[in-house]
Amino acid sequence: MALEHPIIPFFTWLPFALLLFVVLVTGIGAVVVLGIYLIAAVRNGPGQAVQFTRYVIGSAIYDILQLSPRRTIAMAGLAFKESIRRYVFMVFLVFVIVLFFATLFLEGSTAKHYIGFVLLLSKWLVLLVVLILSCFSLPADIKSRTIYTIVTKPVRSWEIVLGRIVGFSAIGTLMLAMMCVVSYVFVRRGLDHQHVLEPEDVSLIAADDSDGLVLRTDVQKGHRHRFSLTNENERAADGDDVERPGAASTGVNWTEQVAGHQHQILLADDGTPTFGPPIGDTLARRPVYGKLSFLDRNGDPAEKGISVGKEWTYRGYIEGNSLATAIWKFDGVSPNSFPEGLPLEMTIRVFRTHKGEIEQGILGTIVVRHPYPERLRPGDVVESAPISFRADEFVGQWLPIPRRLKALAPDGTTKDIDLFNDLVYDGEVELRVRCVESGQYFGMAQADMYMRRNDGSFFGNFCKAFFGIWLKMVLVVTFSVIISTLLNAPVAMLATSVSVVIGFFAQDIQNILTGKTEGGGPLESTFRLFEQQNQIVPLGESVQVNVAKGIDWVVMVLMTGVSYVMPNFRGYADYGGLDTGDFLINGFDIPMTLLTQHFLITFGYVVVVSTFGYLFLKTREIAA
Amino acid sequence: MVTNSGSTTSGASTGEVVIETRNLSKIYRDFWGRQKVRALKSLDMEVRRGEIFGLLGPNGSGKSTTIKLILGLLFPTSGEALVFGYDSTNVVKNERIGFLPEESYLYKFLNAEETLDFYGRLFDMSPEKRRQRTQELIEMVGLGWAKRRQLKEYSKGMTRRIGLAQALINDPELIILDEPTTGLDPIGTREMKDLILKLRDEGKTVLMCSHLLADVQDVCDRIAILHQGELKEMGRVDSLLQVTDVTQIRTQGLSEEAQREIREIINKHGGNLLAVDNPTTTLEDLFLSIVKDSEARPGRRAR
Ligand SMILES: Nc1ncnc2c1ncn2[C@@H]1O[C@H](COP(=O)(O)OP(=O)(O)OP(=O)(O)O)[C@@H](O)[C@H]1O
Ligand SMILES: [Mg+2]
After folding, report:
1. What is the Cα–Cα distance from B82 to B89, expressed in whole angstroms?
2. Mutate to test the pocket of ligand 1, among B30, B43, B61 (most ligand atoms within 8 A of CB)
3. Best residue in B118, B149, B152 to probe A by mutation, most A CBs within 10 Å?
4. Which of B75, B122, B170 sits opposite A155 (nearest CB)?
5. Distance from CA of A603 to the nearest CA of B (A)
6. Quick check: helix, strand or coil at residue A354?
7. A326 and A221 fall within a common domain
8. Rounded Cα distance, B90 and B225, in Å
9. Residue A454: phi, psi to the nearest 5?
């Protein structure tokens, strides 16, 4: 999981977001007023246009003051009833049936696949349903003229628009709530399994010296785990620690991690190992991130680690057996927050220039270091003795730093030190990682090492991910309802889906127009697709090519324009992206601050977009 | 030919003005703003409190257009329409208006009770009041037996009735009815007409449009006749229909002898005996003659 930047704290984000909102609303407002004026001027001449513009803005403000919750709820209730009477909950049945069949091909998959699948299915089903519902509702009313009986009642255009948004969102909410619970049960049941000792290995246990033997569990859900019955504490002493999923679980034996989870090993009275439930793939980790910087191979501060070319620039690499170091600085560290020591977890990428010992992870060390050695008195301890570890690739690796550490004295002897007393200064501490094996590289990004506070609840996290879908559902409803005040149902549906898709690929579209990404507009791309050309082959010069390029350019400019105003339906994009599913899939708790930010972004969209809906409806001749 | 009798049955013509249109015109345009139809041309009219005002005219003459302009469903091309002194686009006026559209366009997925309950919620009334009014109106339009059935199962006349109930949910002061009797059976038509008269007697104002002359003649106090978007005639029904140079004699139980004598007397005075007509045909005559006249000399107010 790639978290390029730390998540901006809510109260740092809020002023910027508000400022942006105000600027945008002012800008959009000015454009809208100008637009109303121009349209009125074309229709009725400039003299009347001023009056008309004033009238529209005046009534917008007046009508919003007159907005009645009672009428809005009545309209919402109508939309709700309409959906129910149209058997919309049949879709839920479809959902359950798809899940039923999905068990066939998901059998034996990892948690990532299970969770990813239910998120995807819920998301697209709900979005499709609310898209259809809310695109067809208002145009149907206008076409059948039922709307006449509404607008001749004291109903404000706001209430017609908002009522539908609320009503269809309520349908979506109900559906998502049901899908969330069913999905959760589905994932839990799909992942749950119980191993026993592999029958072939039973004889090995019988032999007296089972210590140090590598044993296997039986195959369940398409996988098995290897494990050994080595004494945990002995192994911890030589630094080659086994990863453990929980801070409080020291002194417990675990199986090897396979398919994202492991099992606790329990010994029965007769000495046969039995296994606990799968642990580690349905987590809601709450990481505390530090700040990452690098030293280059000569030990000088470097902007970034070196690039090994295969990854995007996000991750920096340090060379093995050199002075190259990755330095994480954490703050807010105190015995209160971490009484047991630092609950460190990391995911390190490895880039091998030679095979080395392929079965084993690459060796590295961590040093805990005082953040400001210059403020120490001579003779004070600057850093701990290196703690060595083997980098497991692609897997969250559990490397807790105990409170009691060893330090190397200049004379070569070791002495005991205390993490908080000796190395933490004003809540700050540094952790320095090096790669030990020459010719090998460690790749690291800021989010790759973190301290793992108490985990959140997985079900809670599941609900949070569904809340992310909920936000998108509300946005689709809002956009659909508003676009359908203007266009007829099929066109509104098309327009909404195109806008959503553009919102989805916003970044890519912008990159193509600005030339960051190689590529052309729709015509050029279609041509290349059929000609099986790649993007680099020149198209040649002809009138047709130039015309096509011209059309492409116009389309791309339009799409880029739309891409800037549409909400980002994908994840990340510096966390304004509304999709938080990846957090859940990767076992990270979705930060509340992110959800709050997303909620406010969504709310901002709803406010602005429904204002457009009001204006469209207010200035539309219902009976024309 | 037209005289103002001045005698009124309801005293309505002196009441406060409820609807007023000034120079009201409507041109329908297409998407590109090109002129399609001039549906209404400079209409000036007033509807006063407590009267039943009928808009009369052949198909496509602009009756529905006028009503839609008054309700704010359409925006006037020029001129203005005021209802209770408010501009027609002002939503506030709707608190006191009930509207029955040309056809009853209601939500087919609701039943009668839900329909009235829903429309009731759009007005400021207490839940008890709303429930009470719902039941009253369902009884009044005679749908008590079908109140739990979804409207998609309703016949045309039943839909019309629930449409009327919907228009009256807020106990409106002004009721606007677009062709109120279409789709109703003779008994239903009679009931509708009685109801309109009853509403008038309760002090409400009714604006209705129709091309069913019998309906208009039976219930309307005043009428306006439109043709091709132009106002051709406006006045009290009784005075419009009073034809001063025609004497209508209707008798019963007269002997052959007596009839011959009367005929002779009429002949003696140079008169000409006309057939004994049903009074409605008189409005029909008026209507047809106005239409014929207007077609012969377009653009002029008839007579
Ligand atoms: N939405 C519209 N767009 C274009 N023209 C319209 C529209 N509605 C009505 N018209 C035209 O305006 C004129 C008046 O129509 P209107 O519906 O007011 O007639 P009407 O008197 O109600 O007729 P009817 O007795 O058939 O209901 C007609 O020529 C009609 O074709
Ligand atoms: Mg009509």
Report:
1. 9
2. B61
3. B118
4. B122
5. 26
6. coil
7. no
8. 27
9. -55, 130
Q: How confident is the model at residue B302 (pLDDT cuts 50, 70, 90)?
A: very low
Q: Residue A620 in contact with residue A163, Cβ under 8 Å?
A: no
Between B280 and A606, the more confident residue is A606
With respect to residue A280, please indicate whether it lies within any of the assigned structural domains: no
Chain B CB contacts of A78 under 8 Å are 107, 118
* In chain B, where the domains are located: 17-245+281-296, 246-279
**Domain count across chain A:** 4
The tokens describing A481, both together, are: 């309802």
- The protein residue whose alpha carbon is closest to atom 22 in ligand 1 is B64
What integer is the mean pLDDT of A470-498?
Answer: 92
Q: What is the pLDDT of residues A385-398, one digit of tens each?
A: 888 888 876 667 78
Q: What percent of chain A has pLDDT over 90?
A: 26
- CB-based contact A218:A224 (threshold 8 Å): yes
- For A159, the token pair is 């209430």
Question: Which protein residues have their CB within 5 A of the ion that is ligand 2?
Answer: B 64
Domain membership of residue A281 (yes or no) is no
Quote the CA–CA distance of A158 and A150 in Å, as a whole number: 13
Q: What does the pLDDT look like over B105-156, one tens digit per residue?
A: 899 999 999 999 999 999 999 999 999 999 999 999 888 888 899 998 988 8
Task: Give the domain extent around A220.
Answer: 199-271
Which one-letter amino acid corresponds to residue B186? P
Beta pairing, strands B97-100 & B52-56: unpaired
pTM as predicted: 0.84
More confident residue, A380 or B39: B39
Amino acid at A100: F
* H helix intervals, A243-392: none
Go through chain B and tell me how many residues it has. Answer: 303
Model confidence at A270, pLDDT cuts 50, 70, 90, reads confident
d(CA A366, CA A389): 8
Q: Which of B71, B75, B91 sits opposite A154 (nearest CB)?
A: B91
3-state SS, A474-538, equals: HHHHHHHHHHCCCCCHHHHHHHHHHHHHHHHCHHHHHHHHCCCCCCCCHHHHHHHHHHCCCCCCC
Task: Compute CA distances A410 → A374, B199, B269, B290, whole Å.
Answer: 17, 107, 149, 120
What pLDDT was estimated at residue B6? 38
Question: CA A14, CA A122: separation in Å to the nearest integer?
Answer: 30
Helix (H) or strand (E) holding A584: helix A581-585
Question: How far is it, in rounded angstroms, from Cα A408 to Cα A105?
Answer: 55
Shared domain for A144 and A248, answered yes or no, is no
Specify the residue with its C-alpha closest to ligand 1, atom 6: B28
Distance B59 CA to ligand 1 centre (A): 8
Are B111 and B117 a contacting pair, CB within 8 Å? no
Strand order in the sheet with A429-435: A301-302, A291-295, A325-330, A429-435, A362-369, A387-391
Look at residue A331 and tell me if it is in a domain. Answer: yes
Show Cβ contacts of residue A615 under 8 Å, excluding neighbours closer than 6 positions.
A32, A36, A56, A60
Give, in words, the CATH class of B17-245+281-296.
alpha beta
User: In sequence order, what DSSP letters do the residues of A172-219 get, joined into one string?
Assistant: HHHHHHHHHHHHHHHHHHHH-----B-GGGHHHHHSS--TT-EEEBPP
| Residues on chain A touching B97 (C-beta within 8 angstroms) | 152
Cβ atoms within 10 Å, residue B65? 24
Please say whether the beta carbons of B199 and B192 come within 8 A.
no
Residue B175 has pLDDT above 50, yes or no: yes
A376 located within any domain: yes
Residues from chain B that touch A156, judged by Cβ atoms under 8 A, are 91
